[in-house]
Specification:
Blueprint: H1 4-16, H2 19-33, H3 37-50, H4 55-71, H5 75-84
Helix pairs in contact: 2-3, 2-4, 3-4, 4-5
């Protein structure tokens, strides 16, 4: 069933799925959805080291990295990451 909420969510995902940040966003979602936490952590960490950005899309990618950090037991790193944004 396609509800208004579903359409809004899909539109939001489409917004975050464009460009280089979109690649990283898609990578993060796939890794999380498939339970590949360590693989996603390593891949997104490497991406973030090689890229710069700003705005809500960039912060959202960092939010995903914080989710990986929390899952890996790196709570201080996750807090620091989000406090810097």
């Amino acid at each position: 069933m396609h509800t208004a909420t579903h359409r809004i969510d899909c539109a939001g995902h489409a917004y975050f799925a464009n460009g280089d940040d979109g690649f990283a966003h898609d990578l993060a979602h796939r890794a999380l959805d498939e339970g590949r936490i360590e693989e996603g952590y390593v891949a997104l960490s490497a991406y973030l080291q090689d890229h710069d950005g700003e705005g809500c899309r960039w912060v959202h990618v960092h939010w995903h990295m914080a989710v990986f950090e929390i899952a890996m037991g790196e709570l201080d790193a996750a807090m620091q990451r989000m406090n810097e944004r």
